[in-house]
């Protein structure tokens, strides 16, 4: 999980939980690095300092599930259908630098693993990205 160390600036503790047997995971390490680096990068970027980011890894018999939850600014419901598009920036993200590529990159990497990604968000409360990749 090198991606966690690369993006964490020690201002946001990461709470990591694993459910299931992680010894049999077979994913492309470069794609996994892109997924985690970009999701954690956004979670840290849009969250207040010292707020925890929750990272859950759940391994079932047929899938690998990642869930990353932050307590950041959240995403407007009107922006949610567009956040997987390249260069799209949520309407409340204008005060933060960026290109709007991170989530598009994550989506492409998840698609290459034949997985699914979903997002739930509440303005002012945070965002959760859930990724499911078949084994």
Describe this structure in words.
With 135 residues, the chain is of the alpha+beta class. It has a single domain, classed as Histidine kinase-like ATPase, C-terminal domain (Heat Shock Protein 90, 2-Layer Sandwich), CATH 3.30.565. It has three helices and five strands; from the N terminus they run H-E-H-E-E-H-E-E. It has helices spanning 2-7, 29-45, 102-112, and strands at residues 14-19, 53-59, 63-69, 116-122, 126-134. It has a five-stranded mixed β-sheet with strand order 1-2-3-5-4, with helices on one face. The chain is globular. The mean pLDDT is 87.
Would you spell out the secondary-structure blueprint of this structure?
Blueprint: H1 2-7, E1 14-19, H2 29-45, E2 53-59, E3 63-69, H3 102-112, E4 116-122, E5 126-134
Helix pairs in contact: 2-3
The helix-strand sequence is: HEHEEHEE
Uncertain stretches of 5 or more adjacent residues: none
The value of Rg in angstroms is 14 Å
CATH class call = Alpha Beta
Number of strands: 5
Largest sheet: 5 strands, mixed
Percent in strands:
25-35%
What class would the helix/strand composition place it in?
A: alpha+beta
Number of domains: 1
Features:
alpha+beta; Heat Shock Protein 90; 135 residues
Short description:
With 135 residues, the protein is of the alpha+beta class.
């Amino acid at each position: 999980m090198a991606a966690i160390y690369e993006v964490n600036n020690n201002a946001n503790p990461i709470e990591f939980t694993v459910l299931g047997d992680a010894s049999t995971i077979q994913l492309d390490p470069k794609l996994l690095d892109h997924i985690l680096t970009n999701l954690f990068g956004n979670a840290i970027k849009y969250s207040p300092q010292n707020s925890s980011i929750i990272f859950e890894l759940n391994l079932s018999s047929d899938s690998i599930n990642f869930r990353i939850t932050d307590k950041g600014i959240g995403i407007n419901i009107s922006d949610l259908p567009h956040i997987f598009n390249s260069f799209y920036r949520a309407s409340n993200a204008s005060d933060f630098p960026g290109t709007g590529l991170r989530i598009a990159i994550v989506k492409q990497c998840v698609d290459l693993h034949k997985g699914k990604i979903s997002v739930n968000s509440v303005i002012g409360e945070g965002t959760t990205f859930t990724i499911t990749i078949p084994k």
